[in-house]
Amino acid sequence: METVLWVLGILAALSHAIVLWQWVAARRFQLHQRTPNGALIRPRPISVLKPLKGANALTRDCLESWLTQETGAPLQILFGVDSPSDPVCDLVRQFNSLFPHVDASLVVCSENRDANPMVSKLIQLARHAKHDVLVIADADVKIPQRFLPEFTGHLENPGVGLVNSFYEITNKSSLPGKLEAVAINGDFWSQVLQSNQLKPMHFALGAVIGIQKSTVQRVGGFEAVANFLPDDYQLGHRVAKLNLEVRLCPIVVECLEPACSWRRLIARQLRWAKTVRTSEPVPYFFSIIGNGTLRPLLWMSLARSAPVTWFSVYLCLSRSWIALNLQERLTRNNAVKK
Q1: Which of 144, 188, 279, 291 is the most buried if burial means most Cβ atoms within 10 Å?
Q2: Does this model's pTM top 0.85?
Q3: Position with higher pLDDT, 302 vs 73
Q4: Rounded distance, CA 241 to CA 79, Å?
């Protein structure tokens, strides 16, 4: 029994050290930093590829944030759907009337490629892209003003092959959704930065990706990642294999998701865990070790001694404070956004 307690104590301390490392890595990253007014990088024409499927109460805000961007250069937005009967088509047509000055098109991606549905749409949307700089965005992403010029400006730097951005989960009205938001807003982004301290970023976060057509062609086109579920990871991985930098933009975007059930949350987290385990087995292993709450509680329940209890309470409270602090830094708020 004494050996078990020693092992639990060491694991509890190790998990706390890993969490502290994540916090330090996150504090060092210049999150939300923007270029000063008047010092914007040269605007470039952009084609946005935005696959869509269905619509909810939050879809309007997401799409409108793209249509109201001030880029200082030609902007093309391509909305891709599987069928003209998709409910989101009516919303896109409304926006075409409200924003006639925006080069926005609804593209029906009717080809059945027996592949990742999102990548299938990207393959078909890319054929209509007018500009060399491509921005790929999930349907639920809302972006702040002046995002696109600064985001794509990173591609001007020599050696940068792909740029992506952190995201925060917002508008989660159910308890399962709020718990998921805490996990993403308080942990996920710091784990990515911790991984980047071990080796250069060699994958991409899929909320928003910026890449040039020529780079897409060099990795074999979107067809090269068509049969992978984590297509964003694979696209970034192939860019990194070209000895090009995968860069993180410090500006954070929002993912607006409706309330979800416990069943949907569990299914999504299991799918996410399986994807991370397959793509990044070593970071996945350390993420398990870095559970800074479970081990102290287990250690405290088995030891039943005052020193262990107080130290375990400190570890749990410290873990909670770090998660809330990181969430506040990412969302610039001290609570999960409602």
Answers
A1: 188
A2: yes
A3: 73
A4: 30
